[in-house]
Amino acid sequence: MALRVCNRLLSLEQQVVLEAYDDQLEIVRESEVRSKAKVETIAMLEQTSNELATHSQQTNGLIQEMTARMDIIAQNAKGGRVLAEEAQQTANDGNTQLDKINRTIERVEESSRMVGEQMKNLEMMTNQIKDIVGIVKGIADQTNLLSLNASIEAARAGEHGKGAAVVASEVRKLAEGTRDSVMNVSELVNKINEYVASSSSSLEQAQTLVEETKDQMNGTRKSFKNILQTMENTKESNVRIEQDLESFLQAIYEIEQSAATLATTAENLNVMMEELNE
């Protein structure tokens, strides 16, 4: 009976020991599994951290390169805007000069027109003088003829016609002098007419040149107007580019800040892994 009890006690103790061993073995196994999972987790975190650090460095490098290029583009856009403003100012100055030249041409045109009218009036006056000269010449010729007839009649009268002959001779001299003066005046009038005709021809050519120059100036003014509009469009385009680049640079700055935050997170993750390894 006692032996049987002892056997039961031994069996019970053995069972307790075996169960304790099994429990301990299960704990060890669970610990090994946890340790293995921990190692795998740490390895995965380490790999992820390294990848984050690598990507962060690459991203930061790309951002810096992109920022440098954007700065160059921004400087070029600013330079283009400045050049456009300078070109616009130059075009404005040129347009102002064209306006002054055009006003001068208009004054020249008006003066030429007035001179042309005066030349026509002068030509009319010389023609009138020529007509008067013709009349005076006719009178002189007629007077000369009458004085000649008077001289003939005085000669026929003999002694009584001597006084009349003297008067007729003086009248004939005056008529001849008048005719000579009239001929000189006629020659002067003809020369004046020639000068007037030549001046009128030159004036017409000058007026034609003025008209052509005026047309050219109008075409040049139109070209300057187009240049001014183009420069204005270019300036506005460069201003928009500058504004877009500023927004783009701001976005790059925000990305750079995010990349820096990512790098900090990767560093913190490395510290945590080191603590886990300890």
From TrEMBL:
- Domain Methyl-accepting transducer intervals: 27-277
Q: Which GO BP terms, alphabetically?
A: signal transduction
Gene3D superfamilies noted in UniProt: Methyl-accepting chemotaxis protein
Stored Pfam families? MCPsignal
- Entry-linked PROSITE patterns: CHEMOTAXIS_TRANSDUC_2 (PS50111)
One GO cellular-component annotation of the UniProt record comes to: membrane
Q: For this UniProt record, give its keywords in alphabetical order, as a comma-separated list.
A: Transducer
Instruction: Locate the transmembrane regions by residue number.
Output: none
Q: Which domain of life is it from?
A: Bacteria
| InterPro entries in the record | MCPsignal_dom
Against PANTHER family, the record matches this protein to: HEME-BASED AEROTACTIC TRANSDUCER HEMAT (PTHR32089:SF118), METHYL-ACCEPTING CHEMOTAXIS PROTEIN MCPB (PTHR32089)
Q: What is this protein called?
A: Methyl-accepting transducer domain-containing protein
